[in-house]
Amino acid sequence: MTNQLQRIGDDFAPVSVGENFVITPQGMQVRGNPDFDACEVFWKRLRSMERGIQFAIGDTARYLRERFGDKADQIISAATGWSNETVRAYEWTAEKVPMETRHMEELTYSHHQAVGKLAPKEQNKWLDKAVAGDGEKPWSVSKLKAAMKDEGAEPSYWLMVRCKSAADRDKLQKRLEAEGYTTSERGA
Questions:
Q1: I need a labelling partner for 39 at 20 to 30 A (CA). Which of 9, 125, 179, 180 fits?
Q2: Looking at the domain assignment, is residue 82 inside a domain?
Q3: Tens digits of per-residue pLDDT, 148-160?
Q4: 177 is in which domain, residue-wise?
């Protein structure tokens, strides 16, 4: 196993999950002889990783940009294999849908992406409806989108404002969103 891990290199460094499991691009490797409970915990952690990976990428990209500014692109674009558009989409959804609003145990990332353009209160309303679903199971993404469209959840009016700086834009955007307005960023 050591030779294989050395061969992987820094671009695809192995990820240890607990003391017995290592995830590599080729799959999962077991160290030692984990008991039933350790295997069960690992299985649940895999499910968490699978459910949350898009938000994890988006939240990480946001953190890197806030922490390192333009220099963050050296990390973000360095041999990940993700297109810039993919990372930006994950980042957008992570920014627009706060952690406390996310229902990842019951819904998919795509559900959250569908409500991202709405104000936080509206996001909660629609995600709660999607979780409740039809009584037996949550709504599909297409059912959520159709319900939102039927009830006119799409914004009806637009206002474009030129700000003097990114900081002013962020401040105004946060204030408007706190008041229940939906915002959308566009470059100058």
A1: 9
A2: no
A3: 988 876 555 577 8
A4: 157-188
